[in-house]
Automatic annotation (TrEMBL):
Region ranges (Disordered): 281-311
Phylogenetic lineage: Eukaryota, Viridiplantae, Streptophyta, Embryophyta, Tracheophyta
Protein name: protein-serine/threonine phosphatase
Residue ranges constituting the PPM-type phosphatase domain according to the UniProt record: 24-273
One function term, GO molecular function aspect: protein serine/threonine phosphatase activity
Length: 408
């Protein structure tokens, strides 16, 4: 065992073998399948669970990806692109919400948005649709947050601090029924895209988590609440273990509907992330296979000729957590404390990417109590309309003020 500070030289043969292996596993194979049973016709993939109509889900499906990509500078290398993605996801979500609300539609949607770049999986979510990961090494990783007011005390506190009211439906005589909701509007969620009629303290700022898989791969299950209200993550994984993605998605939906009936739109997407040389299983094993089945599916091939030196310097196969943030405050999510502090151009709005003339942009730190005492002229900057949106989300302006000013 080496002592602290001791320097070891890795043999050239090992470095060359690593480089060769990295080239081969640089881009995994992605195989996906999806299934749906519809009650209201408001679920759209990838993965938007609409409510109060499908307009928000359709608009988000058509525009969100472009808005996220537009927030990433074009001159980044691969590692820089991955590092820039968490902030771009925030900007893309907020712009999509802002643009949709300007159409004066009252529809809303939850979103679970997944980008796979090489072995890095980035997930951004608002609402109660969720994404889980089972890596080849085993275990379950929860890559999204649940923004239902019923179970998220931190979000309840944020909504009430921003001017909303949280309570159950009152049927008269002091009798309250159902889950906790935000009033006005009666939405059960604290975050979504759309929902103009509820109040802007229901924010579109996503929880973002980014992980890097080992070269052995893993399986993603992305589902609407119609699945997760009926079965657990472990049940979802167990009921489809060993099956290819298309059959897996169908089995999960069938399992969920079989337990609670078709009470809501129920949608599931399954994505297998595999080494290129290891094809997905095509023949399903018996349903009662042990939990090691998925691990054997994704197990990386080993070479019998590996030397003791190569084994000594082998890198472990683990899931590496790269990024996690769930704050609803734009001044925290678009801050320059994260890598790529030069991501935002000086005279571009950090949310909508429109050009801002010198002196017209508003720092995201303006009016905030920042423990690092950043100056109001420290960027990144927002245009006037995005600053207005930020103030409304943080309870500094009534959401009704915007509509009254527009009608004057």
């Amino acid at each position: 065992m080496s002592t602290k500070g001791e320097h070891h030289t890795v043999p050239l043969s090992v470095l060359l073998k690593r480089e060769s292996a990295n080239e081969k596993i640089d881009n995994p194979e992605l195989i996906h399948g999806q299934a749906n049973q519809s009650k209201k016709g408001e679920d759209f993939t990838l993965l938007f669970d609409g409510h109060n109509g499908s307009a928000a889900a359709i608009y988000t499906k058509e525009n969100l990806l472009n808005n996220v990509l537009a927030a990433i500078p074009s001159d980044l290398n691969r590692d820089e692109w991955v590092a820039a993605l968490p902030r771009a996801l925030v900007a893309g979500f907020v712009k999509t919400d802002k643009d949709f609300q300007e159409r004066a539609r009252t529809s809303g949607t939850t979103v679970t948005f997944v980008i796979v770049e090489g072995w890095v999986v980035s997930v951004a979510s608002v609402g109660d649709s969720r994404c889980i990961l089972e890596p080849a090494e085993g275990g379950v990783y929860y890559l999204s947050a649940d923004h239902r007011l019923e179970i998220n005390e931190e979000e309840r506190d944020r909504v009430t601090a921003s001017g909303g009211e949280v309570g159950r439906l009152n049927t008269g005589g002091g009798t309250e029924i159902g889950p906790l909701r935000c009033w006005p509007g009666g939405l059960c969620l604290s975050r979504s895209i759309g929902d103009l009629d509820v109040g802007e303290y229901i924010v579109p700022v996503p929880y973002v988590k980014q992980v890097k898989l080992s070269s052995a791969g893993g399986r993603l299950i992305i589902s609407s609440d119609g699945v997760w209200d009926a079965i657990s993550a472990e049940e979802a994984l167990d009921c489809c273990r060993g099956l290819p993605p298309e059959s897996s998605a169908e089995h999960i939906v069938k399992e969920a509907v079989g337990k609670k009936g078709l009470r809501d739109d129920t949608t599931c997407i399954v994505v297998d992330i595999l080494p290129l040389e290891k094809p997905a299983a095509s023949v399903p094993p018996p349903k009662k296979q042990g939990k090691g089945m998925l691990k054997s599916m994704f197990k990386r091939k080993t070479s019998d000729s590996s030397s003791n030196i190569e084994k000594e310097y082998a890198e472990p196969d683990v899931v590496e957590e790269l990024f996690e943030e769930g704050s609803a405050m734009l001044s925290e999510r678009l801050d320059t404390k994260y890598p790529l502090c030069n991501m935002f151009k000086l005279f571009m709005c950090a949310v909508c990417q429109v050009e801002v003339k010198p002196g017209e942009g508003v720092s995201i730190h303006a009016g905030s109590d920042n423990c690092r005492k950043l100056r109001p002229w420290d960027g990144p900057f927002l245009c006037a309309s995005c600053q207005d949106k930020k103030d409304a989300m943080e309870g500094k302006r009534s959401s009704g003020d915007r509509h009254s000013s527009e009608s004057d």
